[in-house]
């Protein structure tokens, strides 16, 4: 799809604004922190799988990306 | 005449040994993500130990600048991805144009970061202040060096692609692009950890 990269960029920018708004309006609690890191993980997925074409790669490399995203989200629950 | 990138020379990405950009750049990406991941774990860990210090120190960071810098990196990442598409389509002129846009995005990021650093130094926020400030300077500084290395790599690619009118550079550009996107990936977790969580 020709517009795939543009749609990905628009999603990324929207999620960036959303996470900044969430940080500004949230209570700073664990659930807010988790949501912020969840949004960061979605952005990580979009960059890795669409800008870097990881969606076409072997399952191993996709697994590495998902592992990193999961660890980062779990860290926010711990914090 | 615009020639398309020969289909037979496109790597089989489904093979474990040929991720997009090549296995070597992905080994580097894994190492870098691991290194910065530990840095982010340190932010979370020390944030648990000294929550008041972290909240007070983080309030000195400018979320607006952090958000604009994130936007700049994402837009330059978009141009990078478009330039890889362009070289695969055999459009050298468009590839070079998009690479120059990408480098400009990195330059704008660096200038804004420089302004932010100057602001912090003026306010007396230095490497040795407290744990949050130490981690802020080390992690953002190390990340900025990666952005500069990426800009140098992309500048070399622009010069090479301009000189030689063939498709041999598509694989190299994909690797260079993977390095550039890695700077995005690192920043996507560094930004919320430093600017938004506390």
Outline:
The complex is a heterodimer of chains A (79) and B (198). Chain A has 79 residues and is mainly alpha-helical. Helices cover 81% and strands 0% of the residues of chain A.
Structure description:
- The complex is a heterodimer of chains A (79) and B (198).
- By secondary structure, chain A is mainly alpha-helical.
- Chain A has 3 helices and no strands.
- The model of chain A has no long low-confidence stretch (mean pLDDT 90).
- Helix content of chain B is 77%, strand content 0%.
- Chain B is mainly alpha-helical and 198 residues long.
- Chain B has helices at 23-49, 51-58, 63-88, 92-122, 131-163, 169-196.
- Mean pLDDT of chain B is 90; it is low at 5-9.
- Classes of the chains: A mainly alpha (79), B mainly alpha (198).
- The A-B interface holds A 5-6, 8-9, 12-13, 16-17, 19-20, 22-24, 28, 33, 36-37, 39-40, 43-44, 47-48, 50-54, 56-58, 60-61, 64, 68, 71-72, 75-76, 78-79 and B 13-16, 19-21, 26, 30, 33, 37, 40-41, 44-45, 47-48, 55, 63, 67, 70-71, 74-75, 77-78, 80-82, 85, 177-178, 181, 184-185, 188-189, 191-192, 195-198.
């Amino acid at each position: 799809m020709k517009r795939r990269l543009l749609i990905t960029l628009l999603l990324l920018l929207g999620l960036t604004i959303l996470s900044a708004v969430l940080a500004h309006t949230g209570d700073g609690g664990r659930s807010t922190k988790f949501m912020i890191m969840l949004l960061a993980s979605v952005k990580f997925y979009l960059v890795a799988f669409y800008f870097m074409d990881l969606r076409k790669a072997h399952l191993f490399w996709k697994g590495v990306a998902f592992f990193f995203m999961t660890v980062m989200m779990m860290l926010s629950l711990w914090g | 005449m615009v020639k398309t990138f020969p289909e037979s020379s496109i790597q089989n990405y489904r093979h474990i040994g040929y991720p997009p950009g090549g296995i070597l750049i992905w080994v580097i990406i894994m190492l870098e993500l691991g290194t910065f991941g530990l840095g982010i774990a340190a932010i979370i860990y020390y944030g648990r130990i000294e929550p008041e210090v972290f909240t007070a120190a983080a309030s000195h960071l400018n979320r607006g600048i952090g958000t604009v810098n994130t936007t700049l990196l994402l837009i330059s990442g978009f141009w990078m991805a478009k330039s890889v598409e362009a070289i695969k389509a055999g459009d050298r002129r468009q590839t070079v144009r998009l690479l120059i846009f990408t480098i400009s995005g990195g330059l704008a990021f660096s200038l804004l970061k420089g302004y932010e650093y100057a602001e912090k130094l003026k306010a007396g926020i230095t490497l040795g202040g407290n744990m949050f400030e130490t981690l802020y300077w080390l992690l953002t500084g190390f990340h900025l060096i990666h952005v500069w290395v990426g800009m140098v790599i992309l500048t070399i690619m622009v010069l090479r692609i301009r000189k030689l009118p063939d498709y041999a550079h598509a694989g190299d550009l994909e690797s260079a692009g993977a390095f550039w996107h890695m700077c995005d990936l690192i920043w996507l977790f560094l930004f919320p950890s430093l600017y938004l969580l506390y």
